[in-house]
Amino acid sequence: MTHNATRRNGLTLARRAAAAGAVALAVASLQPVSAQAADTRVIGGKPAAQNEFPFMVHLSMGCGGALYKKDVVLTAAHCMEGSGNNNRITVTAGVADLNSAAAIKVKSTKVKVAPGYDGTGKDWALIKLARPINKPTLKIATTNRYNRGTFTIAGWGDTREGAGTGTTKLQKATVPFVTDRACKWHYGNRLVAKEELCAGYQSGGIDTCQGDSGGPMFRKDDAGKWIQVGIVSWGDGCARTGVPGVYTEVSHFAKDIARAANAL
Ligand code: ARG
């Protein structure tokens, strides 16, 4: 993870803490800087097979993403530095192992961060690629009907909270949907319920973590095809008991995302 991404993730945590008051501040600031900066993996997962999730991409600042179109990646706003021309991001696709010789590497040309993004909710962004990547795209949910059941999460982020050691091998896990109401037992009004959804086990142990941000949370649709319902966004620590992961609610933004992708 680059210095920039490190600062950005720290900033996001700090902003959220400031907005949420003393309790949140205590939780967030207890995280050592190294934990915030950690290029970490899915916690409690196992390695994904080559080509299992062909739409998954890795971003050079230490985030994940998914191919929304052959030349457009959907990721998290908090992984980006803002909208505009940008040729500084390297997108790696086509491999579970980042060191594989088969890795496809393409540069960004432009970034579009969600309109109105200020660090709370609206955590989505699009990256335009210098050339199309010939891999399957991941369609996004356009209604809330898939905000239920069990989701797959995947990423190259930390496998332990605060580990600070990214993995080169894509990790995967499954986590159950958590209702907004239950998610608020821990997060209260820090959860932007309309724009975010939660997932995780009450007992903890399995979660996304630092370095997984921007990656997709997905499930099968009624036709048995993968569909994206979430974007890895934030959480208090990783995989803690009673603390779900928080994901951007993709269906809420589906129209905005489609519009932004067409304009990119
Ligand atoms: N903000 C983190 C990142 O930049 C993702 C954290 C997800 N946390 C969680 N407990 N699910 O990589």
UniProtKB/TrEMBL annotation:
InterPro entries: Peptidase_S1_PA (IPR009003), Peptidase_S1_PA_chymotrypsin (IPR043504), Peptidase_S1A (IPR001314), TAT_signal (IPR006311), Trypsin_dom (IPR001254), TRYPSIN_HIS (IPR018114), TRYPSIN_SER (IPR033116)
Peptidase S1 domain boundaries: 42-262
SUPFAM superfamilies listed in its UniProt record: Trypsin-like serine proteases
SMART domains: Tryp_SPc
One GO biological process term: proteolysis
GO MF term list: serine-type endopeptidase activity
Alphabetical UniProt keywords: Disulfide bond, Hydrolase, Protease, Serine protease, Signal
Record's protein name: Trypsin
